[in-house]
Structures are given as C-alpha cells and as structure tokens.
C-alpha cells in the first residue's frame, strides 16, 4: 500500500501561514467555545475565543442569543472580559457603549447611528448545553452540522446531550502547532502502541471512521464510544460507559504553541467519585499524547523533513483534515 504526502512542513512553522489561517480556516467554520450556561439568562454576556479571535456572546433582554466581535469599532480595544450580567457592553478605553445585540448606544463626543457603530455579528448555536460560534453568517445551523454525531451519542453511547452538565475544564499548553495537535486526535494509528493500556481495542477493525459533509465521526460499539471532529479545531469524545462527553477546543498561541482546553460534560447520574475516576483516566490518555505532539514539532522545526508520508487508510483522518486546510489556503500563499 502506497503512502501519501502531507502538506508542506513549512505550514506548521511559518507565522504568515497562521495569519492566513485566522481568516481562511478559523473564521468561516463552527467552533466549540464552552458552556452556554453563563448566557442562559437575559442580560448576560461571556467573552470567548474563536480559535484566537476575540468574541463576546450575549443574551439580550428579550432572550435572544448573539455572538459579536469583541473588538470596539473605535480603536480596536477588547470590550468584554470574563462573563456576567450587564445591560450594555462598554469599552474601557474611551467608553463607547453597545447594546447586547451589538448596536452602538453611545460614542462620547460623536454622533453616529447604531448601524454605523454596530459590532460585527456572527452566528451562534447550541447542541445540548454546548455552545458553538462561527464568523460565517451563511454557515449551516450547528444542529444540522452535528446531527450525525448527535445520533451516534444516542444510539451507540446511550447519552442524552441535553442532560449533561459541564463539571470540569482543564487547559493544557502544548509546544506544537495547532494542526499537529488536531492531527494527533484524528487518527488511532498510534493507539495500539501508545494507548494500549488506557484505550485497549482502539485502532482495530471494529473502529469505524466516517467522513460526513462537515464533520468526521468515529465509533467503537463495543466500548459505547462515539467521537466527532468538527473542522478545524474541535473534537468531541463521548464515552457511554462513563456517562461523559469530553469537548476539546484547540487555541493557537502563536505558530508553535497550542492551548487545548478540555471540558468534561457529565450525566447527572454520575457520582463525584465516578467523575474523578473518569477525569483521571482521560487525563492520562491526554498525557500520553502531549509528548508525541511536542516531539513532532521539534522534528518539523529541524528543517530535515519537507513533507511527511502518511498511511492512506490508518491516517485517513489527518489526510482529510489536510485536504480541507489546503482547500482553505488555495491561492493565499505564494
């Protein structure tokens, strides 16, 4: 069986590539950004990151959910931090004030219409209590995008997403380009060698991978496991026997470092002791993966590998991911 070449190594090393990715890869696609609970009530807001783009999610006084650019229309200062309750959003620099739907309410000393100062609107949606945002106003609804995985969580994992509660959020700093980290999660070619004890049986013939229009799904019926990769930087693992969904958001911190934020969503029937056991187990899995990503980045940094060679079947996930990256970047790089 012949191998397939990867995208150029330079794409994992060049800051100019990351700048293009912000516009072409991150902005147009849906991203998991955390729990919708902080914006469940009217008059609430929450600052989040779409990749590394600053966004503020609000629920206005009529109960309508909004996602807005968290960048003041005046001089570009960030408007909101953290989460809480407010009737308006106010830039701390010069006091420009916005309604929770993003319309400009006041620009001291200037006469501008609400439309002239409107914060750019994005698309926002939920799947259960999980919150998703995209800068693409024409993107298909997130419920439609995630439908194949939602069906697997019900039929394979026996999980009702609407019941889950986010109980833990754990960030990991990884010394690797965000694509290296994403690709690690997209294949189980390494599972028998690296995760033989923590994920026994993963990577075998019963491990089924399906490429859908917007997402890739994995399933292992014998372990009640269902998984989804939402391009470009969201992975969702559902373990039915543990009553948990682990939602991963990958945020690039420059070209060679990534923050992987892992949110643990548990069914309320799980006891605190069961939750602790599950978190300890999955954090061990993640701890086995992080050194691999660090090692890949060091190898790429060496300049000794122009392109990698990938297994066309065992690494179908990374290959499909790289094809999507290449399609997004077409014509943008010299």
Question: Strand order within the widest sheet?
Answer: 2-11-10-5-4-3-6
* Domain module count: 2
- Runs in which pLDDT lies below 50 for 5 or more consecutive residues are none
Give the helix/strand class: alpha+beta
CATH architecture of the largest domain: Alpha-Beta Complex
Proportion of strand residues: 25-35%
Number of strands: 19
CATH superfamily of the largest domain: Naphthalene 1,2-dioxygenase Alpha Subunit, Chain A, domain 1
| H-E order | EHEEEEEEEEEEHHEHHEEEEEEHEH
Enter the CATH topology name of the largest domain. Answer: Naphthalene 1,2-dioxygenase Alpha Subunit, Chain A, domain 1
Outline type: globular
Radius of gyration from CA coordinates: 21 Å
Distance between the termini: 33 Å
Helix content: 10-25%
Could you please describe the fold and organization of this structure?
With 334 residues, the chain is an alpha+beta fold. The chain folds into 2 domains: 36-124, Rieske Iron-sulfur Protein (3-layer Sandwich), CATH 2.102.10.10; 141-329, Naphthalene 1,2-dioxygenase Alpha Subunit, Chain A, domain 1. The chain is built from 7 helices and 19 strands. The chain has helices at 15-26, 142-145, 147-155, 178-185, 191-194, 272-301, 316-329, and strands at residues 4-8, 31-35, 44-50, 53-59, 65-69, 83-85, 88-90, 97-99, 104-106, 121-127, 130-134, 165-174, 208-211, 215-220, 225-230, 234-239, 244-252, 258-266, 307-310. The strands form 4 sheets. It has a 7-stranded antiparallel sheet with strand order 2-11-10-5-4-3-6, with no helix packed on it. It is globular and about 65 Å long. 41% of the residues are buried. The mean pLDDT is 94.
């Amino acid at each position: 069986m012949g191998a397939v070449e990867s995208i150029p190594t330079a794409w994992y090393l060049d800051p100019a590539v990351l700048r293009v990715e912000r516009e072409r890869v991150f902005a147009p696609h849906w991203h998991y950004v955390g729990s919708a609970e902080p914006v469940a009530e009217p008059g609430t807001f929450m600052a989040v990151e779409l990749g590394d783009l600053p966004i503020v999610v609000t629920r206005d006084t009529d109960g309508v959910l909004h996602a807005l650019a968290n960048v003041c229309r005046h001089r570009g200062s960030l408007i909101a931090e953290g989460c809480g309750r407010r009737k308006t959003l106010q830039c701390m620099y010069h006091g420009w004030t916005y309604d929770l739907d993003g319309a400009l309410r006041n620009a001291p000393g200037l006469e501008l219409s609400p439309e002239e100062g409107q914060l750019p609107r994005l698309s926002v949606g939920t799947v259960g209590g999980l919150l998703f945002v995209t800068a693409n106003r024409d993107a298909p609804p997130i419920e439609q995008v995630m439908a194949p995985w939602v069906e697997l969580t019900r039929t394979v994992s026996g999980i009702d997403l609407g019941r889950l509660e986010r109980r833990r959020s754990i960030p990991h700093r990884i010394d690797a380009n965000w694509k290296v980290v994403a690709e690690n999660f997209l294949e189980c070619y390494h599972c028998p060698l690296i995760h033989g004890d923590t994920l026994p049986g993963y990577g075998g013939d019963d491990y089924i991978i399906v490429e859908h229009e917007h997402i890739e799904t994995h399933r292992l019926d014998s372990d009640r496991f269902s998984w989804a990769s939402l391009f470009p930087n969201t992975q969702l693992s559902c373990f039915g026997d543990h009553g948990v969904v682990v939602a991963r958001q990958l945020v690039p911190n420059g070209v060679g470092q990534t923050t992987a934020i892992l949110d643990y969503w548990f069914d309320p029937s799980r006891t605190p002791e069961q939750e602790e056991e599950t978190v300890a187990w999955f954090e061990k899995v993640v701890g086995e993966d992080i050194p691999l990503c660090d090692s890949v980045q060091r190898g790429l940094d060496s300049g000794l590998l122009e392109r990698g060679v990938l297994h066309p079947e065992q690494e179908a996930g990374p290959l499909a991911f790289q094809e999507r990256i290449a399609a997004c970047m077409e014509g943008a790089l010299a």
